[in-house]
Amino acid sequence: MAAIIKSISFKNFYNYYGSFKQNTYHFKEGINIVNADNNMGKSKFYNGILWILKDTVYDSDLKRMVNAPSSFKKMASGKALNEETNFDMGINITFIENVDRYSVSKIVQFTKVGDSWRTNEKLDILQTIDNRDIPILDQADKDKIVQKIIPVELMNYALLQGESMEQLVDLSSHNGLSSTIEALAGIKNLIEICEISKDLSQKSKKLSNDKEKEINSTNNRITGLIQERESLEQRIDSTSEQIETYKTEFSEATKRKDTLEALLLNSQNREKFRGIQKTLQNEIDKLKERKNESERNITTMLFSESSPWLLMGLEKQITYFSDNYKNFIIKLTEQRTIHELAADPTILLLPLNSPDKSSLLRMLEGEKCEICNRPALKNSDAWKHIEMVLKRPKSTQSSNKNDFSSFYGGVQTTVSSFLNSIPELSQSIEKYRTAIDNIEEAINQKVEEKEIAKLEFLNAGGSENNVDTNDRQNISDYTLAEKTIEKKCENIKKAENQIKQWKIRLNQIEDDLKGINANSEIKSYRDFKDLMCCVESIFLNSRERIFDEILKSLEINANQKYSELTQGNLSAGGKLNFSKQADGTVQVCIKNINDGELTGLGTGFQRMKQLSIIMAIISSKIGNKQFDYPFISDAPFSEFGDNFINNFFKIAPNVFSQSIIFIKELYDPKSEDFLNDLGKKILRKMENGEIPGTFYVNVIEERADTTNLVTKNKCYKG
Amino acid sequence: MTAEEIFKEVLKSPEFQDIFEIPKDNLEQETFNTKSNYPVIEIVKAIINGQENHRDKNAVFQNIQKQIMQL
Amino acid sequence: MDGSQLRDLIGQKRPRYRMQYRALIEAISNKGDSTGKGDFSSFGAFYQTYMYAFIIGYKLGIPKYIQGNDKTDDFFVFSNWKPTSIRDYIIMLLLNKSEKFGFKWIELENASEDTINTFVTELIRQMEGYANAGFEYLQNKWDNENMKFRNPFVFVNFIEELSKSQFSQ
Q1: Residue A169, SS3?
Q2: Looking at the domain assignment, is residue C48 inside a domain?
C-alpha cells in the first residue's frame, strides 16, 4: 500500500492564521471532506498541497499557475502581515507510506525590513523510525520523499482542480494519456528496445547492400537495381521522417483543439452574448439619440411655422380678430362710400325727400315753391332760400388720411392659416409626448435585454475586462486547429501510401536481385537483413499489442466508473470510447448507443468523463503495479448535480484508498451546522460507517474583516 | 517490465509461428537465460539484453552478426 | 400712411425687457443655437424667449408695464423676429386689445402721424407689459420650481397649465 496522508496543517498560510496546531486537519483512509463556501480557504488549502508537491500555486487573480516563490506574499496570512514583523508561513503534511512515517514541512520565514518583507524558504523533512524523528538532510532524499506522496507521473491524475479541469487531463499529446499508459505498463524498456532493433535493422540493411555492391560491382544491371533500391530506401527514410513531423504537428493541433474545445463553447457563447450586447447597445444609442433629437425639437415645435405649440388655447383670438376686421371693413366702406358720393359733382346729397336740382331750378324760374305750393317771387326770401339750397356747397369732409386695411388684412391672412391647426395642437402635443414615451419604453426594454445578455456573458465566463480578441482568437484558433488536423491526416495518409508504393517497388527489386544473383554469400546477408527487419517488426508489434491491451482494459475500467458516476441521471451520458490516433496519441470521446459521437453534453458530463478516466488510471492494476496514492481534488463538483455527487461518494472509496475533496456544494451558510440537505445526508452516512473518512467544515471567524480573513475548521467526523 | 517479462511477451508474437514456423510448445519452453536453437530468438534475446545492460549498439550488432549469424 | 408703412413702423421697434430677467433669459436661451444647452431645456434665439414670455403674460391677462426707472435692455428689431407667422399673431393679439388701450382701428384711419406713432408706441408698451408679466412668472418658476426646467416639456407644460386655468384666453 502506498501513501496515506495523516494530517495537513497550516501556519499563517492565506486564511489559515495561527500556528500549525491551530490549523490542523486529521485525515484517514476513505473520503476526507473539507466543506467550505467560496473564499473560505478551499483553493488555498489545495494551493498548500501544490506548493509542497510542485512548488507552484494557482493564482486566482492571474487565473493560472505560478511559481510559489513569486507568490509568497499573497500566500501569507493578511492578518500576520498586518500585525506582525516577524513570522513563519508554512504547510506541514504528515503521511505514512507502507510502514514509514514522514513529516514534510515547507516554511517561509517573513522578516519585515522597512516597508517590505524579506523571505527565506526551507523544506524540513522528518522520518519517524522506531518512534524517533530523524531529520532528512540530503536534498535528493528530500525530493524522493516528497515524491512518495504523489509521484510525478501521476500528479496529473491525482491532483485535480475543478476550475481548470478542462486543461488538466491531457489526453491529446504524447505526453498525455499515451505516456501514462506506457508508464503504467512499465514498457519504457520495450520502447528503447524497439529503437535499438530499428537501428540494428538499418545496420543489417546497410551491410547487405554494401556486400551486394562489392560482389556485383561489374554487373551494370545489378548496380542499377542496387542504386534504385538505395534511392528508394533514402526516399522512404526521409518520407518516414516527414511522417513523424506530420504526426507531431497533428498531435500539437489535436492538443490545441482539445484545449480550445473546453474553452470554445464558452468562447462562442461569450462572443455571441458580446455581440448581442453590442447590437443592443447600438440600438439603445440610436434610440437615445432619437429621443434627444425629439426633445431638442420641442422648441422648434413651439415655434413651428404651421402648427406652433406656443399658440395653444388662443384660437378664439383669430375669430375675434376676424370679427374686428370685418366690422372695421364695414365701417371703412361706409366712410369711403360717403366720401365718394360727396366727391362726385354729379351726385348731390340731400336729406331724404328733398327736391332735386332740376326741381329747384324749375322752382326758381317759376318763382314758385313746389313743396309748400306758395309763390316765391324773384329775390324774395323764399326765392333766395330755394337758391341757397341749390347753391349749397359740397361736403367739406376730405378722404381718409391713412389706409391700414392691407395691414390688418395681411395679419388676418397670416393668422387664418392657424385656424384649423391651433385646435389640433393639444392632440399633436399628446402624440409627441406619447412618441417620446414609447422611445423611452423601448430604451428600457433594450437595456433590460442587454442586462440579460450581460448576465449570460458573465455566466459564460466573461468579465468586464474580457477582450473581444481572446474569444475570437479562440474560435479562429480552434478552426485552424481543426483544419490542421485534417490536413496533417491527409499528409500522413498520402505519405504512407507513397511509402507503400515504394516498398512494393523495393520488393520487386529484391526479387529481381535474388533472381539475377543467387550468390550464396549474398543470400546469407540478405537473409540476415530480412531477419533483422522481422525482429524489428516483432518488437514493434509487441509494443503495440501491450499498449492496446492496456488501453482496452483502461476503457473497460473507465466505462465502469463512468456508468457508476452517471447512474441515476435523467439524460444518458453515452459511453467512453478510447481510440488510438495516427500519431500514437489517445483520444477519448463519448459515444451514444449507435456509436455516433455524443455531442451537446454539458460541462458536467465532460468532467464526468475526465473523472472516470482518472479513476480508471488511478485504480488500474497492470502487471504487478497498483497505483495507490491520495486523490486530492479542489472543487471537482461545480457543474455536477446532487446525483453525480452522491454517485461519486459511493464509488470513490472503492477506487481510492484515500481521497481529500474540497467542496462547496454541501455548504449552506444559513444552516446552523453550515450543511445543506445533501451535506447532512453524507455526514450521516459517514457517522454510520457507510462512507469511511472525515468531514470538516471551514468557517470564517465572525470578527474578521476582509483583509484579515481567518478561517477556522470544525471537525464533524474525525 | 523486466527483461524476462519482455521476452515472454515478445514470444507471443505470431511471426514466430507464422514466419519462422516455430511450434507453439517450443516457444513456451524457451527461457531468457538458456540458449535457444532458433537464431531469431537469440537475436531477440541479444537485443533485450543489450538494452538492459546498456550495451553499445554496435557491439550488440557485432555480436549478432558474428556469433549468431556467423557472418 | 399705408399698411406697409405701419408695418415698418412697428417692425422698427425693439421691445425691451427688464435687466433683472437677463440672467433668466440667458439661462433658458441659446443665442442663435436651437439645439439647447446644458441640463436645461432651452429656447433658441432670445426673441423666441421673448415671444414665449409674451404669450405666457398674455394668458395670465395682466400686463406688468415697464416703469420709467426700470433698467432695461432690448435685442433684435421686431421685424427680424421669426417665425413671421407668430410675430403676426402677436400683433393680432395686441390689435385685439387696441380699444382697451385707447385706439379704435377705424379712428386710426384718420389719425395724424403723431397719433399713429403714439399708437405704435403703446402697442409695443403693451407687448412689453405682457412679456414682463411672463418673465416674472418664469422667474418665479425658476427660483421656486427649478427642477421643472430639467423636463424637456417644461415650456409646453407651462402653456398647458395656463390654457386650462381661468386665465385662459
Answers
A1: coil
A2: yes
Number of domains in chain C: 1
pLDDT at residue A101, rounded to an integer: 93
| Tens digits of residue pLDDT in A275-315 | 999 999 999 999 999 998 898 888 888 988 888 999 998 88
- Min Cα distance B59 → chain A (Å) is 10
Which chain A residues are within 8 Å of B50, Cβ to Cβ? 196
Say which of A204, A525, A531 has its CB closest to residue B40. Answer: A531
- CA gap A22, A16 in Å, rounded: 9
Of B10, B19, B71, the CB nearest to A542: B10
**Separation CA A434–CA A423 (nearest Å):** 19
Residues 6 or more apart in contact with residue A358 via CB below 8 angstroms: none
Domain boundaries, chain B: 3-68
CA–CA dist A707, A15 (Å, integer):
10
* ipTM for the assembly: 0.96
Closest CA to A611 of A556, A559, A553, A572: A559
| Whether domain A3-150+629-655+665-717 has CATH 3.90.380.10 | no
| Edge-to-edge strand ranges of the sheet holding A159-161 | A159-161, A631-634, A658-663, A30-35, A693-700, A711-717
pLDDT of residue A209: 84
Domain region containing C9: 3-164
Q: Do C105 and A316 touch (CB under 8 A)?
A: no
**Is the CB of A305 less than 8 angstroms away from the CB of C163?**
no
Are the CB atoms for C111 and A401 separated by under 8 Å?
yes
Task: Give me the residues paired with residue A590 across strands.
Answer: A576
Task: Looking at the complex, report in whole angstroms how far the Cα of residue B48 sits from the nearest Cα belonging to chain A.
Answer: 6
Q: What is the pLDDT of residue A574?
A: 75
Chains that touch A (3 or more CB pairs under 8 A): B, C
Cell 476513505 belongs to residue: A30
Collect the ranges in chain A with pLDDT lower than 50. Answer: 167-168, 174, 396-398, 623-626
**Rg over CA atoms, chain B:** 12
Chain A residues with CB-CB distance to C162 below 8 A = 313
CB A18 within 8 Å of CB A11:
yes
Whether the model clears a pTM of 0.90, i.e. scores above it, the answer is no
pLDDT for A714 equals 74
| pLDDT at residue C33, as a whole number | 45
Rounded to the nearest 10 degrees, the angle between the axes of helix A220-302 and helix A425-459 is 150
CA atoms within 13 A on the CB side of A691: 27
Is C75 domain-assigned? yes
Which of A318, A320, A410 is closest, CB to CB, to C3? A410
The amino acid at residue C169 is: Q
Q: Which three cell numbers stand for residue A446?
A: 433594450
For chain A, give every domain's residue range: 3-150+629-655+665-717
Apex C50 CA angle, C45 and C54, nearest 5 = 150
Query: C160 to each of A309, A415, A430, how far by Cα in Å?
Result: 10, 21, 11
Q: What is the pLDDT of residues C19-63, one digit of tens each?
A: 999 888 888 886 434 444 445 567 777 888 999 999 999 999 999
Among residues A716, A686, A715, the alpha carbon closest in space to that of A25 is found at A715
CB contact under 8 Å between A531 and B51, yes or no, is no
- Which of A296, A314, A325 should be substituted to probe chain C, the one whose Cβ sees the most C Cβ atoms within 10 Å? A314
Chains C and B touch (3+ CB pairs under 8 A): no
Does A310 contact C159 at a Cβ distance shorter than 8 Å? yes
User: Which three three-digit cell numbers place residue A237?
Assistant: 527514410
pLDDT tens across B12-59, in order?
999 999 999 999 998 989 998 898 889 899 999 999 999 989 889 999
